[in-house]
Amino acid sequence: IELVQPFPDEMVDLKRRSKILLSSTWLPKRALAWAGFAAIACFGLAFPLAYATSPAFKQSSTQEFPQPLRNVVWDVAWDPGPLSLGHQSLSRRCDVCHQVPFERVQDKACVKCHVVTGDHVSAVSAKAGVSLVTRCAECHRDHKGENAIVRTDAQLCVGCHGDIGALYPKTSLAAVSDFADAHPRFALTMVNASTGEVEAVPPDAVVSLHENSGLKFPHATHLAPAGIRSPQGLRVLECAQCHRPDEAGVRFQSVKMKDTCSECHRLEFEPALTTRQAPHGDPAAVLTSLREFYSSIALGERPIDVTLVNDLLRRPVASRSEVTQRNAFAWAEGKAQTVAADLIEKRVCMQCHDVRRASASSTPAGSEWVIAPVKITARWMPGAVFDHRTHRISTCQTCHDVKSSKTSADIAMPTLAVCRSCHVGAVAVRGKVRSPCEMCHSFHQHQKPLDQRAAAFMGATSQPQGAGEPR
Question: What distance in Å separates the CA atoms of residue 154 and residue 183, rounded to the nearest whole number?
């Protein structure tokens, strides 16, 4: 653009006179600056400060302030960042955690909600002099993002456990610094067959460990590649047919005779006459059930309604005399005893349980047999966290080698080498699963003692119980 004709002088004067300067208004720079500072100080400092320290101001701010200001949470002005996922419901209630304004969060504020969260040091270790003095917020720093409140760095554990013997010379714990190359062999907990208590087994003793559970169960027989005999013919069984996940998919339901085993191990006693089966469990209940059945036959009006006459069964032709009834009851009792002995000692129960005849002086009437109580360990590693659901891409035999197991005394828990075939330590390795300490171990210990946390599935009496969880 070319200016062909210069502007007249009036245009220049008009431009000069059209500029409005701050000095020509009633708002000098210094006064405006102080006014802005006062407003910012009021809304950004004074109100948030009063909101945090004065309950009266907090109440009046929600009732007496103008409508646009009533819903303002004033102390959010110095919110350093977003809360974690678990604390986002407290985003407008800062005083729940920050109980004393301008002081760091105290442990009592955390425990008020996290009442079931246990300490890191167990009660037994605490009595032995082991202490861990630190604030919750030293490790759990909020306002750092949705998932930043839980520490995942290896130093959280390795700081003490890397050379724990130097900190606590009397400890029985082995030093551990990384799962890939500096982790002790797995230790187990199991039921002591003689006492019924759950006890910890040292790693050195795990190799020769056997479980005396009171059950006879050969995995090799049930997992035979050619299959096993069943009422429907040969069936090839899989682990999942007996070991079924619980609702959460993390562990497994208890294996129960009625739901899992009774299809093949049937407790029939007169299959030609009835589909009725003897009850599983108490031998006295089995005998009572048989007495009822055969008594109803001896005294009932069935085609085989009989009494015992000269050691021969005969249909009564007249009203029953007292002698006849006694003979019928005697026959029913003898028949029940014979069938019960066949079921318990020869054909069914003895296949899975240890059975012996009871002495008359040691058991109450009606308990002619004693079946060893079932004592199955439910948690082999109560100090570790394991989710079967996340491992469903692997087969059961990948971790539990039971196809060649011929006795239920075998311990089929995976070894350290088995886990290392997929998992490495805190440092990521291509083709492996990065596994820092907290993947398997919880920092906070349960408040319940070990024997309750690792409670085994046990029968309180000689009554055989269903099997516990798979190993």
Answer: 13
Per-residue pLDDT reduced to its tens digit, 361-400: 555 555 788 888 888 888 888 888 888 888 888 889 899 9
Question: How much of the chain is in helix, strand and coil states, percent to nearest 5?
Answer: 35, 10, 55
> Where does 342-449 have alpha helices with state H?
349-352, 396-399, 416-420
Q: Can you read off the two tokens belonging to residue 142?
A: 């909020």
Region of 216 (left: φ > 0; alpha: ψ -120 to 50; beta: rest) is beta
User: How far is 41 from 44, CA to CA, in rounded Å?
Assistant: 5
Helix (H) or strand (E) holding 375: strand 375-376
Give the whole-angstrom CA distance, residue 107 versus residue 97. 9
Beta strand 233-235 with 355-357: parallel, antiparallel or unpaired?
unpaired
The residues that bridge with 376 in the sheet, in sequence order, are 457
Residue 38 in this model has a pLDDT that exceeds 90: yes
Give the up-direction half-sphere exposure of residue 457: CA atoms within 13 A in the CB hemisphere.
20
| Burial category of 468 from C-beta neighbours within 10 Å (exposed 0-12, middle 13-18, buried 19 and up) | buried
Going by the DSSP 8-state scheme, the letter that residue 256 receives in this structure is: -
Q: Is 392 exposed, middle or buried (0-12, 13-18, 19+ CB in 10 A)?
A: exposed
Q: Residue 82 to residues 97, 143, 207: CA-CA distances in angstroms?
A: 15, 5, 50
pLDDT for the residue numbered 67: 83
- Given this model, what pLDDT does residue 299 score? 74
Q: To 5 degrees, how large is the angle CA 6–CA 7–CA 13?
A: 145
Q: What is the DSSP letter of 88?
A: G
Contact 352, 217 (CB under 8 A): yes
Give the pLDDT confidence of 421-471 residue by residue, as tens digits.
999 998 889 999 999 888 888 888 765 544 433 333 333 333 333 333 333
Q: Are 371 and 463 a contacting pair, CB within 8 Å?
A: yes
- List, in sequence order, every residue forming a beta bridge with 457; answer none if it has no partner: 376
The H-assigned helical ranges of 77-202 are: 107-113, 123-127, 136-139, 155-161, 164-167
Q: pLDDT tens for residues 258-317?
A: 888 888 888 988 888 888 899 998 888 998 999 889 888 887 644 444 555 666 656 555
CA distance readout (Å), 397 to 298, 307, 389, 418: 53, 57, 15, 11
Determine the average pLDDT of the residues in 326-333: 85
Give the rounded distance of the alpha carbon of 92 from its chain centre: 33
CA gap 6, 321 in Å, rounded = 147
Q: Which helix (H) or strand (E) holds 43?
A: none
Residue 460: the pLDDT is 30
